[in-house]
Structure formats: C-alpha cells, structure tokens
C-alpha cells in the first residue's frame, strides 16, 4: 500500500514571505471574529493594568509594616525619601482614607477592587479569545473542506486522504489557536516589559540600567532559535503527514488489510514512519530546552545582581525594603516579558507553517461550478477526437483520437481488456477527468461549458461495481444527491430497484441504519439501493460500471431485473463482461490500444480477435 504526501503545486502563495500569511490572516478576519478579538483585547489591557499595580501595592504594604514613619501623603522623615514612588502616587490619590492610621489595613482594602477588576477582566478576556479562536477554526475548516470537495478527481489520485484529513483537523486548529495565543502573550509581555521598565526607572534609575541589559541578550537568542526551529518544524510536519497518510489508507482499506493478515505489517510501517520523526523531534526538544535554560539563567543572573546592588542601596538609605521588593517583582516581570516575546517569535513561526498549509489548500483553483444548464436533455453522447492520458503518466495515452457517437435512448455495452480505458471512458463523460485534447459533447454541446454540479446531479445516474453507502439510514442513502425527494419518490425508486419489499421487512424499515459503507447489508442489497439512488432523479442517462460482477447468481438475477427496469427509456453506458448484460445492449464496443477496434451487435463483435481473446481469458 503506497503512501503519499501532500504537495501543493502552482499555488499563488508559493514563494511568498511567511509573514504574508500573517497579513492575510488579519485581512480575512470576519466581523464577529474582529468583535470578539477587540473585546478580548480591551479586557486584556484592563487586566494588564491591574497586574502592573500589584508590585507597587505589595511594596507599600511591606513598608507599612516595617517602618512606622511611612504615611500616605506625607514625607518619610526617617529615610529622607518622599512617597512619590509609593502606592498613592501610582493611583494619584492622597489620604484616600482620610488619615495616616491603620495604613496596612487601608492598603489591603484598596487592593480588593484591583483583584475584582483583574478577575472580571480575565473572564472576559478568556471567553472572547476562545470564541474568536473557535470561529476562525470553523471558518478555515469550512473553506478548506469546500475547496477539497470542489477539486477534480485527479487531485485526490495524487494526494493522501489521511494527510488531507490531518490538514483539515490539525492545521486548521493549530494555525489560528497559536496565532491568537501569541497575540495575547505578546500584549501581556509588552505590558510586563515596558510597564515594568517604566516603573523600575521611577523606583531606581541605577538599578534599572542593570536590569535592562537582559533585553538585548534575549533578542539575539530568540533570533537564532527562530531560524533553527522554522526549518525543524517544517520537516517534522512533513514526516508526520506521511505517516498520517499511510494510516488513512490502511484504515480506509482495513478489510483488505485483515483479509491478508497485514495488521502487524501496517502497525510496524506506521511505527517506523513515526520513528523517522524522532531525530527531528529530539532536536526540537533540545532546542526548546536550551532556549528556556538560557532565558532562565539570564533572568536568575539578573535577579542576583539586582538583589546585590539593591541591598547596597538599601543599606545606604537610598531605597526602602518595600521599594526593593517592588523593584524585584518588576524585574521579574521584565525578564518574563522578554522571554515571552522571544518565545512568541518561535511560536508564530510554527503557526505560520500551519497557516501556509491552510492557504495553500484553500487557494487551489476549484472546478467550474457555473455554466450552461440544458432545459431538455435528449441523451445524445459524442466523443470527438478525444486524446487522454493520466496526469501521472502523460507519456502513455489511454485514448488516441477516439471518436464515438451514442444516440438518445441507445444502450451501449463497453468491453475490453484491463487497462483498455473502459472506466476512463465513463470518467471522461462524467467530467471527473478532462480530455488532454478533443471534446465530449452532450446533445451537441461541449460538456466543459456546462455547470458541472448541475450536469452530475441531473444528467446521469451511476451504479458502480462496489457501491458506496454512507453511515445513515436507507432513506437517506436513496435520496442522497436529491435531498428534496418526497417519501413517495423514494418508495417508487425502491420498488423499481426490487429493494422495497426487503426494506419494509426490517424493524425500522426505511429508517434502518446501514453502517459505515453499508456494512450491515449484503452486496446485492447495497447494489439495489445504489440503483434506487441512481434513478430517483429520473436522469436521461444511466451509467453502469460492472454493476453485477461482484454478485452471486441469486443476487444477480434480482439486480438484473432492477437494472432492466432502470434502463427503460434512457441512454445507457454499460461496462460489463457478462453476455447476459451485453444482450440487452443495442450496440457493443470493444476497446483496445487507445481506440475502438470493433462496434456492432454482440454477434458482430464476437468475430473480433480482441473480443475472443478477452472471453477466452475470462471464461
């Protein structure tokens, strides 16, 4: 089982500077997202302001308990200091409680509103930022899912479904979540860094100069770390996507895996692919650890210097115990703010890796959904000078100058050896693939000019060899693609498909759950539900791709009867290797070597060497 990794080619975003994605992230914000971010930011500013007040408040409380000469609104006679750096100057109030008695209690009571404002602001901040993250993640998931669903079939042949699902789930969460978290951390870090710097300069300019030396050290450390981590995270993500792609393929084909006893093989392969990420993950972890160790060592060294110089100034009477305590707290805030900003740079770099993936996908060109809609489809089909090769094998032509005309109401059986282009012919007609050159026409109109969604929903119905049913009720599966169907239309389609009697014999009748991919039903029952789904819209054209080849004799006879009813009054394209099916066709086509080598009645084509060779191999 091959495993692929998603590669987005020919994107408008290829080669763009990474911060262009950040700019686009901001521009694309919708009104409700902006509102929640704005309210959250206001609450964050309020919360940050209260945080800046706490160190001054703590210092004032300490001084009020360690010296009797401190009083609000007066000069400290014993130390020669004025309380200009004290609590009352911070708030611009003097004698708030009307006197100097019980200063300690007064400060405590003054602190209560601060704590209440801080708590309320924190609630508003968390709620609004969380809501904004949810809305942005949802928007990206919807945009990405829409883009994926509107890609042509060749896109999915070149991509891993597991990797795409990982992009849809993980990248759409990691990108917005990390960016908004970094935005919050950045504002708080700026508050701590600049607010702390302002306050320590007021408290002691001499000590402040020593403390602020730490900032450029953090900046240079962060720059080096950011460059390293960007490359490592991109590589780690690429390797993980490969593992997720393999896991997705194995889970999608779990029956085949179990039939062949390959469970341990798939487990070992998935484990090996994850282990291939180990070296990169180890380097990332070591870089994270080294970065944080450097930052903390710088903070601790700075704090030791501050405490040493501060004690010297305190012994000389230039600073009080409370002011030194306030200074130390502000110094810690500066250190944490600087380290946070340093870390934010690296986290934003990681987030932009996810954001790049998101925009690389949602900016992929989508299938044309607008175009002509024919009012009265007759059912004439024409392939005119069609040349086709698959995207991954452009040098090998499945069709080379193919010409074919099918009249309205005509049933055509298509036979050929494996790889001759039988199913490809159906894919070209259904517009899931485009001809390399030439054109396919419906009622003399080039199908490339038609609205593809309208075309597939109204022009034809498909019954394939292995019908896909979704995990829902029988009723939902029959009217899938025709959501406005009435109950009577569903019942009528089921009757024509010889499945109604079976359905009504079930305890829950049409509300019976079919399970994942119809696992609760037999192949014959699934096939008849697929026939009902194909004809409920009453399409003028019916496509049958080996519709009975996987059935046993008993089921086949019931399904054949349903197919005969479904074929009445319709143009039919039928890929089959069963003579019983070919006898129902007006014309049989034999494909070989890029073209039609025989055409006519079953009796006529039976004389063809290619036809005889095919049936000698299959009988």
TrEMBL record:
Which UniProt keyword terms apply here?
ATP-binding, Membrane, Nucleotide-binding, Transmembrane, Transmembrane helix
The protein's matches in InterPro entries, at most eight in alphabetical order, are given as: AAA+_ATPase (IPR003593), ABC1_TM_dom (IPR011527), ABC1_TM_sf (IPR036640), ABC_transporter-like_ATP-bd (IPR003439), P-loop_NTPase (IPR027417), Type_1_exporter (IPR039421)
What does the UniProt entry say about where the protein is found?
Membrane
Supply one GO molecular-function term. Answer: ABC-type oligopeptide transporter activity
Q: How does it sit in the membrane?
A: Multi-pass membrane protein
Q: Which residues form the ABC transmembrane type-1 domain?
A: 38-350
Where is this protein chiefly located? membrane
UniProt xrefs under PROSITE patterns: ABC_TM1F (PS50929), ABC_TRANSPORTER_2 (PS50893)
Transmembrane parts of this sequence: 35-54, 107-127, 207-225, 291-311, 317-336
Example GO CC term: the record gives: membrane
Q: Which Pfam families match?
A: ABC_membrane (PF00664), ABC_tran (PF00005)
Q: Where is the ABC transporter domain?
A: 381-618
Q: Which PANTHER family does this UniProt record tie to the protein?
A: ATP-BINDING CASSETTE SUB-FAMILY B MEMBER 10, MITOCHONDRIAL (PTHR43394:SF1), ATP-DEPENDENT PERMEASE MDL1, MITOCHONDRIAL (PTHR43394)
Q: What is this protein called?
A: ABC transporter
């Amino acid at each position: 089982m091959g495993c692929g990794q998603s590669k987005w080619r020919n994107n408008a975003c290829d080669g763009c500077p990474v911060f262009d994605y950040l700019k686009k992230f901001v521009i694309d914000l919708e009104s409700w997202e902006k509102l929640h971010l704005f309210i959250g930011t206001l609450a964050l500013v309020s919360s940050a302001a209260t945080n800046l007040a706490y160190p001054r408040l703590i210092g004032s409380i300490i001084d009020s308990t360690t010296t009797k000469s401190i009083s609000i609104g007066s000069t400290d006679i014993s130390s020669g200091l004025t309380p200009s750096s004290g609590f009352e100057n911070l708030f611009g109030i003097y004698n708030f409680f009307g006197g100097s008695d019980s200063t300690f209690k007064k400060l405590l009571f003054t602190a209560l509103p601060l704590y209440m404002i801080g708590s309320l602001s924190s609630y508003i901040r968390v709620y609004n930022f969380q809501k904004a993250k949810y809305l942005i993640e949802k928007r990206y998931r919807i945009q990405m899912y829409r883009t994926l669903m509107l890609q042509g079939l060749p896109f999915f042949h070149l991509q891993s479904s597991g990797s795409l699902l990982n992009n849809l789930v993980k990248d759409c969460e990691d990108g917005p979540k990390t960016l908004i978290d970094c935005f919050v951390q950045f504002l708080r870090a700026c508050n701590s860094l600049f607010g702390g710097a302002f306050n320590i300069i007021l408290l002691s300019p001499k000590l402040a100069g020593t403390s602020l030396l730490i900032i450029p050290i953090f900046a240079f450390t962060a720059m080096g770390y950011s460059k390293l981590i960007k490359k490592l995270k991109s590589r780690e993500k690429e390797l993980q996507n490969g593992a997720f792609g393999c896991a997705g393929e194995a889970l999608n084909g779990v029956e085949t895996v179990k039939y062949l006893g390959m469970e341990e093989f798939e487990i070992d392969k998935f484990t090996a692919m994850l282990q291939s990420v180990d070296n990169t993950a180890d380097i990332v972890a070591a870089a994270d650890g080294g970065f944080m160790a450097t930052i903390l060592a710088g903070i601790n060294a700075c704090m030791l210097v501050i405490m040493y110089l501060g004690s010297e100034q305190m012994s000389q009477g230039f600073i009080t115990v409370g002011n030194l305590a306030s200074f130390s707290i502000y110094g810690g805030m500066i250190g944490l703010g600087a380290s946070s900003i340093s870390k934010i740079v690296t986290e934003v770099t990681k987030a932009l890796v996810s954001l790049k993936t998101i925009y690389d996908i949602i900016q992929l060109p989508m299938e044309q959904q607008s175009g002509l809609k024919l009012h009265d489809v007759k059912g004439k089909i024409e392939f005119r000078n069609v040349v086709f090769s698959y995207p991954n094998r452009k040098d090998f032509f499945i069709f080379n100058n193919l010409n074919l005309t099918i009249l309205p109401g005509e049933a055509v059986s298509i036979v050929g050896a494996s790889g001759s282009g039988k199913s490809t012919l159906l894919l070209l007609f259904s517009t899931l693939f485009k001809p390399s050159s030439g054109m396919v026409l419906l009622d003399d109109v080039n199908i490339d000019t038609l609205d593809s969604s309208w075309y597939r929903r109204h022009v034809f119905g498909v019954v394939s060899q292995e019908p896909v049913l979704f995990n829902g009720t029988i009723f939902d599966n029959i009217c899938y693609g025709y959501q406005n169907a009435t109950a009577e239309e569903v019942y009528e389609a089921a009757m024509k498909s010889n499945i109604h009697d079976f359905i009504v014999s079930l305890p829950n009748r049409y509300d019976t759950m079919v399970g994942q991919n119809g696992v609760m039903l037999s192949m014959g029952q699934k096939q008849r539900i697929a026939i009902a789904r194909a004809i409920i819209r009453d399409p003028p054209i019916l496509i049958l791709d080996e519709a009975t080849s996987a059935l046993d004799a008993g089921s086949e006879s019931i399904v054949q009867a349903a197919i005969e009813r479904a074929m009445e009054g319709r143009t039919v394209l039928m890929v089959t290797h069963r003579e019983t099916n070919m006898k129902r066709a007006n014309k049989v086509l034999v494909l070989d070597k890029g073209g039609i080598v025989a055409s006519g009645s079953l009796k006529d084509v039976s004389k063809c060497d290619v036809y005889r060779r095919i049936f000698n191999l299959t009988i």
